[in-house]
Amino acid sequence: MNNPTLPRNGLALAVFVALCLCGNSGMAQETVLPELGSSAGEIITPAQEAQYGAYTLHQLRQMNYVLDDPLLDSWLQTMGHRLGANSDNPRQPYTFFLLRDRQINAFATLGGYIGTNAGLILTARTEDEVAGVLSHEISHVTQKHVIRSVERAKKDQIPIMLAALGMIVAAQSAGGSGSSADNATAAAMMSAQALMIQRQIDYTRSNESEADRIGIQTLYRAGYNPDALADFFARMESVTRANAGGYNAPDYLRSHPVSVTRISEARDRAHKMRENRAELDSVRTSLPSNPLLPDFAQPSRSQKAGAASDFIWAKERLRVLSAVSPGAAIIEYRRGIDGFESKPSDAHQYGLALAYIANRQGHDAEALLAELGKKHPEHLWVAIARAQSAQAAKKPLLAETRFEQLITKYPENRAVVLAYADFLLELDKADKALRAQELLRRIGGDGEDFVYQRLLARAYELSGNTLRAAEAYAEVAFLNGRVDDAISQLSTLLKNDDLDYYQRARVEARIAEFMPISLELKRQGIKPEQQGS
User: Fold this and answer.
1) CA dist., res. 337 & res. 325, Å (int)
2) For position 372, what pLDDT does the model report?
3) What are phi and psi of 247, to 5 degrees?
4) Which one, 31, 263, 316, 320, has the greatest CB density within 10 A?
5) What is the pLDDT at residue 495?
6) Does residue 525 come out as left (phi exceeding 0), alpha (psi in the -120 to 50 range) or beta?
7) What element of type H or E holds 452?
8) Burial class of 286 by CB neighbour count within 10 A (0 to 12, 13 to 18, 19+)
9) Is the CB of residue 240 less than 8 Å from the CB of residue 104?
C-alpha cells in the first residue's frame, strides 16, 4: 500500500545492505566490519555480528523504512525479549524493530536484529500470532541459520552482485529521469532481490521446519498459544489468496513458503506439546513433592499476554503511522476497518484520534479521546494521546498541564519523556528546551536510541549549547546511515577551541569508531553522497 520509494542515490546502498545480509568478501585488513566467514573456518564473533546488524538497521532507517515510535517500540521489545528469554539461547541479545512497509514480512539478520513489517501486524488477529512469527525468527538466530546462509551465499556473491548492478544500470539507462526512472530502478532492485532469494530458497526451506519446531517450543515456554504460528500461517495464506485489505505477501512467501502440509505440521507439533505437558503434569502430581526436582508446570496464566495486552492499541497506532499520510489514515477509518462503521471499538476510535492528531485536527481528536479517557482513565497510550491532542488543537497550556500530570505519575517512562520533550521543543523557546534536556537526562538514552538523540540535539540547539548540539546531530547522522556526514561533523567540531578535555576525547573516540565503517562503505563502492536520502 505504501512502500517507500528508494531514492536514486540510495540504490547502491540498498544493494550493499542486501549483500551484507548475504555475505561479504574478504578485506585487506581487519576493521569494524570484518569478513563474515571463510572456507578456512574463521567464525564471525558475536560483537562483529552485532556491528553488521546495527548498521543494517541504520541503512534501513536512512531509506525511510524504519518506524521509530517509543510506544510501539516498547510493546514490541517487551514481547520480543520475553520470547528471547525463553528461547534455546536466552543469552543472545536481540533488537526488534518495525518497518513501515505494509507488505506481510519479517526477517532475522546478523546479531539478533529482527525486523517486522507493519503489514504483518495489521494482518495478525492476536498478539500470540505476532509472537509466533517472532519466535520463528528468533529460532533462525538461535539455530545459526543466518550465519549458515551467509557462508553459503558467499559462493554466489559475485555473480549475484554483477547481475543486480547490471539490472540497475539498464533500468537507469532506459528509465530517463524523474519518477519513471525511480520506478524503473526500483523494479530492477526488486528483480535483483528476487534473484538473490531464488538462489538461496532451497537452503532456506531446509531450515523452516526446524525454525517452526523450535519456535513453537519458545512460544509455549513464553506463555503464548502454541497454535498461534499455525493460525497466522493459515491467515497469511488466506489473505494472500484473496488479497484482502490490499496486503500482499510475496516477500514472506518466497522466504517462508507456506503449504497445507506445513500448517498441519505446526498444528500437530502444538498438539503434541500440549499432550506431553499433560503427561508431565500427570506424573508430577502423582509423585511426592520434592523441592530438588525442577518444576515442569505449565506456564501460568499470569505469564501470558492475555486480555491486558496492548496489541489492539498497538495495531491501530501502527495502522496510522504506516499509512501514506494522516489524511489517508482518516479515509481508511472512514471507509471501515473490521466493522469500524457498524461497531467501532475503543482501539479503532483511538486510531482515528491519532490520525486526527497527525493531521493537526486537534479538536476532532479531543472529542474522541474525551470519551476514551473516561473509559480507560489509567491507560497510558490514551493519556499521552490526550496531551498530544491538546497540542494539535493549539492549546499549549492544556497540553503542558496534561504532560506534567503524566511526568509526575511516570517520571522515567521513556514514551512519556520523549512525547513531552517533543512538545516542549515544538514551542521553540530556550527555557522549554532546558526543561526538555532535564527530562531527557532522566532516561539517559543509549547511543542507538534514534528518537532520543534527535530530540537531545534539538534541545541543545535551542538552549544555545552549540557544542553538544553538534555532537548529538552527528550521532543522529550516524543512526540515519550517514557515516561520512557524521565524521565530517565531528571533525569540524574538533577544530573548536572551546571543547573541554572530556568532550574532545569522546568526539575522537567516536570518529575512531566510525572510520572503519566509512572505509568499508568506500570499498563497497558507496560514495558519501549516496549515504544520504
Assistant:
1) 17
2) 96
3) -95, 130
4) 316
5) 96
6) left
7) helix 450-463
8) exposed
9) yes
Return all residues near 49 (Cβ < 8 A) that are at least 6 apart.
110, 111, 112, 147
C-alpha cell, 269: 507439533
Is the separation of the CB atoms in 360 and 392 below 8 Å? Answer: yes
297 backbone φψ class: left, alpha, beta (φ>0; ψ -120 to 50): beta
Contacts of 223 (CB under 8 A, 6+ apart): 82, 299, 300, 303, 304, 305
CB 314 within 8 A of CB 121: yes
How far is the C-alpha of 251 from the C-alpha of 237, rounded, in Å? 13
Residues 6+ away with beta carbon under 8 Å from 116 = 76, 96, 97, 98, 99, 105, 106, 130, 133, 134
Q: How many CB atoms lie within 10 A of CB 345?
A: 14
Length, in residues, of the chain: 533
Question: Do residues 369 and 401 lie in contact, with contact meaning Cβ atoms separated by under 8 Å?
Answer: no
- Written as nine digits, the cell of 521 is 562503505
Three-class DSSP category at 463: helix
Amino acid at 115: G
Query: How many helices (H) and strands (E) are present in the chain, helices listed first?
Result: 23, 3
CB-CB contact of 109 with 115 (8 Å):
yes
pLDDT for 343 equals 72
Q: CB count, 10 Å around CB of 205?
A: 13
What gap in Å lies between CA 32 and CA 49, rounded to an integer?
10
Low-confidence ranges of the chain (pLDDT < 50): 1-42, 157-178, 195-203, 244-245, 247-250, 284, 293-298, 300-307
CA 533/CA 521 separation, integer angstroms: 16
3-state secondary structure 247-267: CCCHHHHHHCCCCHHHHHHHH
Q: Is 413 left (phi over 0), alpha (psi -120 to 50) or beta?
A: beta
CB atoms within 10 A of CB 143: 19
The three cell numbers locating residue 525: 563502492
Residue range 42-86, pLDDT digits in tens:
456 778 788 888 888 998 898 889 999 999 999 999 999 999 999
Distance CA 369, CA 375 (A): 10
For residue 530, the surrounding DSSP H or E stretch is none
Cα–Cα distance, 459 to 111 (Å, whole number):
32
- Measured CA to CA, the distance from residue 236 to residue 326 in angstroms comes to 27
97 phi and psi, to 5 degrees? -145, 155
Q: How far is CA 197 from CA 65, 163, 283, in A?
A: 20, 13, 47
List the 95-99 sheet strands across, edge first. Answer: 95-99, 113-117, 106-109
- DSSP string computed for 333-348: HHH-SSSTTTS--HHH
Give which of 442, 440, 446, 478 is closest to 458, Cα–Cα: 440
Say whether 99 sits in a helix, a strand or coil: strand
Q: Is the dihedral of CA 388, 392, 396, 397 positive or negative?
A: negative
> Each residue of 35-62: b (16+ CB within 10 Å) or e?
bbbeeeeeebeeebbbbbbbbbbbbbbb
